[in-house]
Design a protein that fits this description.
alpha+beta; 12 helices; 41% helix
């Protein structure tokens, strides 16, 4: 049977996970009655831990907002999750895991752990390797990230100062729908109410974000991640490419993901319509600053294709075919 001290510490862990915990819920989790829960709460208050009683139908107990607990209580699994998260964060550009912040946070957690567990985790971190070298990630400012996240949650308009890809600066209002990470970058998707169009902004290019009065209602069935991928595929670039490829959507997506190209099913023949997974002619549209990367991708698909535009792409594909033919004949 667990001792009272153990249950009091368990109560503290439950409260520090956030939110309001009802007395009944706490009693069930601790395996005690409601009166005993109140006694354990009194023990925490005696230790100067500010536990607040919340009255009402959905009342219970919570820790005072903004209170930081001095003890760090992590079991083996929790400590491993935190430290691996910090290591991975430095490799993927998480704002809270920049070089300095990540290292200092890791050091603090390491010092707070029992020596037995710390040695085991040190061994894991020393033996851990990544297949890709760390690069310079586009990391947004923490203040900007938190301000926009708060606006998303409370459906508040936000004013941002933005620097575009061509270095033009502007200040605009955004109704933010969601924050999405994609390939090491952070984006916010939403609507620009001034023009009534969906927009996507890179968070690392936002210098300031301020919540504005009022509120907005996001569209029903909103999927911020899908909006981001569609927006990236339709972004303005130097070349507009239209292809017809014979295959399945799944085959095309292995080389041309949704963030690169849009795929539209053409009207299938009656024989094809009977099987939704049958190979058929699909229209593929994409935009690109350069075209030299596309011929090898089309070759790797190993599917019949027709280039509708631009003519320049036809020349690049023919040139690649000639080089492959010449290499195959070389002895």
């Amino acid at each position: 049977m667990a001792r009272p001290t153990s249950r009091v510490l368990t109560l503290l862990e439950l409260l520090q996970s956030g939110g309001i915990r009802t007395t009944t819920e706490l009693a069930d989790r601790l395996g005690v009655d409601v009166r005993t829960v109140r006694r354990y709460v009194d023990h925490l208050v005696d230790l100067d831990i500010p536990v607040e009683a919340v009255r009402g139908r959905y009342g219970g107990y919570r820790l005072a907002p903004g209170y930081r607990l001095p003890p760090l209580m992590l079991n083996d699994d929790e400590a491993l999750a935190v430290l691996l998260g910090l290591v991975a964060g430095r490799r993927t550009g998480l704002p809270a895991a920049t070089e300095t912040a990540g290292e200092t946070a890791t050091a603090k957690i390491r010092r707070a752990l029992p020596e037995r567990l710390a040695r085991r985790l040190d061994a894991l971190l020393e033996s851990l390797a990544f297949t890709a070298a760390p690069g310079e990630m586009a990391t947004p400012e923490t203040g900007v990230l938190l301000a926009i996240a708060d606006a998303v949650r409370h459906r508040r308009p936000v004013s941002i100062r933005y620097t575009a890809r061509d270095s033009r600066r502007s200040e605009r209002t955004l109704h933010p729908y969601g924050i999405v990470t994609h390939e090491g970058r952070w984006y916010v998707t939403g609507t620009d109410p001034a023009i009534g169009q969906d927009r996507t902004f890179r968070l690392d290019r936002i210098a300031d974000a301020r919540a504005l009065p009022g509120s907005f209602e996001p569209p029903a069935g909103l999927d911020p991640a899908q909006r981001l991928l569609s927006g990236l595929a339709k972004a303005a670039y130097r070349h507009e490419v239209t292809l017809r490829i014979h295959g399945t959507v799944e085959q095309i997506r292995t080389r041309l993901p949704a963030s690169v190209a849009s795929v539209e099913e053409l009207v299938p023949a009656e024989a094809e319509a009977a099987d939704p997974h049958a190979e058929r002619w699909l229209r593929v549209e994409l935009r690109a600053e350069r075209l030299d990367w596309l011929p090898p991708v089309l070759a790797s698909l190993d599917r019949p294709f027709v280039i509708e535009r631009p003519d320049e792409l036809r020349g690049l594909v023919i040139a690649l075919a000639d080089r492959l033919k010449a290499s195959a004949r070389h002895v």
